[in-house]
């Protein structure tokens, strides 16, 4: 290792005995907390932006806490702007760290209170409102599993203020104390809380965004430390001393980016390479994928087991004023396999968790809903410990539900599937509406089936052709889908010679034909086979159909109390008709004397004389085209509701919360961008106002402000000549392409500017000290001032020039500017020596 070469201290200065290089020793943490924050404007801006952006990105992991994450992610973004923006302004003003933190706490609290309660200023009423919201949020968090439903009191106040605390901690540790590594602790807490609360992993893209932000913060901090070593050695210096230690910024950036990318990739891929690790980084996210699939079991297995007439076990207890609580549905089967009907592959998104009002019924017209409004009934359900199902027993055509935990619904079938636990021992409530179907409306329903998935008309390729032949033969001469469905139901129940029996099994495609054909073992079966056969025959005729599994008829055990047992299991088909939605049919005939417990009854709307109904028109009415074909999934609000809310939409009240927050965020960003231009606009206006007055004093005042903007100490007590001698030491060459980070400075760097400064000083001296002031001509002085300003800018570093443009100090500091401790301006002379450490 070669000896350290240090230039002698300049005249009038003394090196610290503890720091042979003359640099000030590093202050302890206690002094830094009470002292001022010092750093360049670009470093402060970049580090603060990275800290706030990384913290907000980490809080994206909290999206699973509620069903509407935009209600707290938008406010947290605004709070990040408040905390970060205020921190930048106060740190550029070099205020003590404690003052910066206190100001951020006060401003952040006021902003959070305004976002939560709508009250901008603290008041007893506002604090009481905040306390009520906090109490309600805590109670909701203790009562509901994540995600919290929209109908419950929101937990958003807890998340907003919790996020504010995290933003303040990260900003304080990373930006004020310059301890980015310590700031990783609150970031890690933010990221890992959802894992402990929800039990599921965090999206991989949230992990990548957080890791990239934290790596950026580390890079910004270490690059700032690296820049304090001294000037970067150029190629000439390296050639002169091969043993010298040189740092190239590009290499540092490349190495840092490579290390960060490698670490992030390892963190993502390690769980895939080691099967024993139960880490989930790929759940959720955007688009379709296996992360939203639910592991479900086939309800037909339970149906067959329970219909074998084992022990009659009580399963459900209902409390309702409905005098006809029949056909309680558990699940909907949409796919026919070789062996039986199944639920198929379900894609149930995480956002399909609803507690409260449900979306509009698929395919049900407004007229039918209005006609059935009075036929709504509330149910309170208590599930016994014997019913362990991933499916939630509910009635068809629900309007409201309060599920017991993490149950999500399928848009196409509107059955409810568990995301984690089963139904054993749970209790819940729902409200159903009994639709007042009209046979005339069903007959006149349009043939279009665009409101439902094509899956409901899919016929398995191995279905025997004979099945379709039988369906067409039974419905021959019938010109309407609904009439064909009624004829099929009547054929199974009355005309086809079918009978009910549990002494048979099988409802797949292989058993279907033997069930439908006449013969010794034909046309005998139980509910699953009847439902399966009618559904597949309806599909061969182009009618959307599916099979529902649930309970048939409960036993009354008290006043408004009913009980379902395992022997009440049943299956039935549901067929879709535009304007009426999914309509239940009952093809299973009544059981014989050997089993009187099966007492099925055909629905009243199917027991009509279809031959005497009005013949349907060839074209659907204009009202049906727009009114009777709503979709539950993509168009949940009704068309009429959308029309009624036109005025609200025009005023902005009908916008969704996410859109409103997006508009607020865009407006906030626009305001911040506009505010960023305010200082330089004010500075330009002051400059033009001075030149309207003109004269030597205006030129001298403008020269002072230019120097202060560039961080040059201006001593008010010095004479113009003495101040001139100081300023020329800061002169540099005029700005051209490729200006170095630390340009050469001094009188010799720009002689033309020195001559211009001398002319300004002479005019100021004549104005102040001579009986006959100098020339009042302003144009020449302005040219001279511009030359001096260009020289001062040429001698400044690029960060200093940027700070002078965006945050001119002269707007906030008038008169004498105090030099910083340890700076060269404390000395009567200025030294430009450079300390270079050679490591070899």
Write up this protein.
The chain has three domains: 171 residues, no CATH class; 323 residues, no CATH class; 145 residues, no CATH class. The protein is built from 26 helices and 17 strands. The strands form five sheets. A seven-stranded antiparallel sheet has the order 5-7-10-6-1-15-14, with no helix packed on it. Strands 2-13-16-17 form a four-stranded antiparallel sheet. The longest helix has 37 residues. The N terminus and C terminus are likely disordered.
Summarize the structure.
The protein is an alpha+beta fold and 840 residues long.
Attribute tags:
four-stranded antiparallel sheet, disordered C terminus, 840 residues, 17 strands, alpha+beta, 3 domains, single chain
């Amino acid at each position: 290792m070669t000896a350290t070469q240090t230039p002698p201290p300049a005249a009038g200065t003394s090196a610290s005995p503890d720091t042979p290089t003359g640099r000030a020793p590093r202050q302890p943490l206690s002094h830094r907390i009470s002292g001022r924050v010092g750093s360049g404007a670009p470093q402060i801006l970049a580090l603060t932006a990275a800290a706030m952006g990384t913290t907000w990105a980490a809080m994206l992991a909290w999206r699973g806490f509620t069903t509407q994450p935009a209600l707290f992610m938008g406010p947290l973004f605004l709070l990040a702007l408040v905390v970060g923006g205020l921190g930048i302004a106060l740190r550029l003003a070099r205020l003590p760290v404690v003052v910066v933190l206190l100001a951020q706490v006060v401003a952040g609290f006021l902003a959070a209170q305004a976002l939560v309660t709508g009250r901008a200023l603290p008041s007893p009423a506002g604090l009481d409102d905040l306390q009520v919201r906090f109490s309600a949020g805590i109670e909701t968090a203790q009562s509901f599993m994540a995600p919290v439903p929209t109908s419950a009191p929101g937990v958003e106040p807890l998340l907003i203020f919790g996020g504010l605390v995290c933003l303040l901690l990260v900003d304080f540790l990373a930006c004020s104390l310059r301890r980015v590594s310590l700031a990783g602790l609150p970031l890690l807490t933010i990221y890992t809380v959802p894992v402990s609360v929800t039990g599921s992993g965090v999206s991989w893209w949230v992990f990548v965004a957080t890791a990239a932000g934290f790596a950026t913060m580390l890079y910004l901090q270490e690059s700032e430390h690296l820049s304090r070593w001294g000037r970067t050695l150029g190629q000439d210096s390296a050639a002169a001393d091969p043993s010298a230690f040189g740092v190239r910024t590009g290499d540092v950036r490349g190495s840092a980016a490579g290390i960060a990318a490698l670490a992030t990739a390892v963190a993502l891929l390690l769980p895939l390479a080691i099967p024993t690790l139960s880490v989930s980084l790929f759940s959720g996210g955007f688009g379709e994928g296996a992360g939203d699939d639910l592991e479900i079991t086939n309800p037909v297995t339970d149906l067959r087991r329970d219909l074998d007439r084992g022990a009659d076990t009580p399963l459900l207890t209902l409390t309702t004023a409905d005098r006809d609580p029949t056909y309680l549905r558990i699940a909907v089967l949409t796919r026919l396999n070789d062996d039986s009907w199944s639920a198929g592959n379900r894609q149930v998104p995480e956002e399909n968790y609803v507690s409260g009002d449900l979306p509009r019924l698929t395919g049900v017209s407004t007229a039918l809903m209005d006609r059935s409004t009075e036929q709504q009934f509330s149910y309170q359900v208590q599930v016994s410990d014997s019913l362990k199902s991933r499916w939630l027993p509910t009635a068809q055509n629900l309007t409201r539900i309060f599920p017991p935990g993490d149950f999500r619904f399928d848009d196409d079938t509107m059955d409810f599937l568990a995301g984690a636990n089963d139904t054993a021992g749970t209790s819940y409530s729902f409200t159903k509406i009994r639709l007042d179907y009209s046979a005339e409306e069903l007959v006149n329903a349009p043939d279009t089936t665009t409101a439902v998935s094509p899956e409901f008309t899919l016929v398995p390729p191995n279905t025997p052709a004979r099945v379709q032949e039988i369906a067409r033969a039974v419905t021959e001469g019938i010109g309407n889908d609904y009439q064909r469905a009624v004829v099929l139901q009547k054929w199974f129940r009355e005309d086809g010679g079918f009978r009910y029996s549990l002494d048979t099994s099988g409802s797949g495609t292989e058993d279907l034909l033997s069930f439908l054909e006449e013969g010794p073992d034909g046309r005998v079966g139980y509910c699953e086979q009847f439902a399966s056969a009618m559904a597949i025959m309806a599909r061969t005729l182009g009618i959307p159909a599916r099979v529902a599994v649930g309970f048939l008829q409960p036993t009354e055990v008290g006043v408004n109390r009913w009980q379902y047992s395992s022997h009440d299991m049943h299956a039935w088909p549901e067929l879709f008709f535009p304007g009426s939605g999914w309509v239940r049919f009952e093809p299973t005939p009544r059981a014989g004397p050997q089993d009187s417990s099966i007492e099925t009854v055909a629905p009243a709307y199917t027991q009509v004389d279809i031959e005497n109904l009005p013949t349907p028109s060839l074209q659907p009415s204009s009202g049906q085209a727009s009114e009777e074909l709503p979709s539950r999934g993509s168009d949940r609000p009704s068309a009429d509701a959308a029309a009624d809310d036109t005025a609200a939409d025009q005023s902005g009240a009908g916008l969704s919360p996410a859109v409103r927050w997006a508009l607020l965020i865009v407006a906030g960003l626009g305001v911040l961008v506009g505010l960023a231009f305010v200082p330089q606009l004010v500075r330009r206006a002051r400059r033009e106002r001075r030149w309207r007055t003109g004269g030597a004093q205006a030129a001298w005042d403008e020269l002072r402000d230019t120097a202060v903007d560039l961080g040059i100490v201006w001593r008010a007590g010095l004479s113009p000549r003495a101040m001139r001698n100081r300023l020329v030491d800061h002169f540099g060459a005029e700005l051209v392409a490729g200006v170095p980070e630390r340009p050469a400075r001094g009188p010799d760097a720009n002689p033309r500017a020195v001559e211009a400064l001398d002319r300004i000083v002479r005019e100021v001296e004549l104005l102040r000290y001579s009986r006959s002031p100098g020339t009042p001509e302003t144009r020449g002085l302005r040219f001279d001032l511009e030359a001096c300003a260009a020289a001062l800018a040429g001698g400044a570093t690029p960060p200093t020039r940027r700070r002078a443009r965006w945050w001119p100090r002269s707007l906030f500091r008038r008169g004498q500017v105090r030099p910083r401790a340890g700076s060269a301006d404390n000395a009567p002379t200025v030294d430009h020596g450079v300390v270079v450490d050679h490591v070899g």
